[in-house]
Design brief:
The structure is a single chain. This protein is an alpha+beta fold. It has a single domain, classed as Nuclear Transport Factor 2, Chain: A. The chain is 31% helix and 40% strand. It has 3 helices and 6 strands. A hairpin with a 2-residue loop joins strand 4 and strand 5. The longest helix is centred in the first third of the chain and has 33 residues.
């Protein structure tokens, strides 16, 4: 009997982890569909209010509201833009109500010079809040780019904040 309880607990946690992974994959699919539809509100619906993002171009997004403005700008200036994030793995820590997702992403949009095709790898951190999985952070690394002048110039490295000066 003493072995039965740990096995039952492990089985329950494993089932919960699979259920959470399924929920995260569904949230990611909704996010991809929202981006394809250029629906800003639906795009940011999966983000926590204190969302943090780091784009492949080193643009930092510090809040869901900043993400809203960023996506609105991207949708209005990049005709036909589509980004697709495809999870490779999702690892859930049910005890801490958090999960890590990593995978590949692709993007494309049209310019005067033709279509831009970009892509790479990404990592996302999810937190479960009030029963819903929300994105806390995402980081995107571009590993390939083709099709237009956009690809000719790598992004400017992010500027590190100035270190605080020691008190005198």
């Amino acid at each position: 009997m003493r072995y039965f309880i740990p096995i039952l607990l492990a089985s329950t946690l494993s089932a919960q982890s699979r259920s959470d992974e399924t929920a995260i994959r569904a949230a990611r699919a909704k996010s991809n569909a929202a981006i394809a539809a250029h629906d800003v509100d639906a795009t940011i619906a999966v983000m926590a209010p204190d969302y943090l993002g780091l784009s492949s171009g080193n643009t930092r997004t510090v809040s869901r509201d900043e993400a809203r403005a960023s996506y609105a700008q991207i949708f209005s200036t990049r005709p036909g833009v589509i980004f697709v994030r495809t999870p490779r793995t999702i690892t859930v820590n049910t005890s801490w109500a958090q999960a890590g997702e990593n995978g590949n992403w692709t993007g494309k949009w049209s310019t005067a010079e033709g279509m831009v095709h970009v892509g790479g790898i990404y990592f996302a951190k999810w937190n479960k809040t009030n029963g819903a999985w929300l994105l806390l952070a995402e980081t995107f690394v571009q590993t390939h780019c083709s099709g237009a002048k956009y690809c000719d110039a790598p992004p400017t490295p992010p500027v590190a904040p100035a270190a605080p000066r020691p008190a005198k």
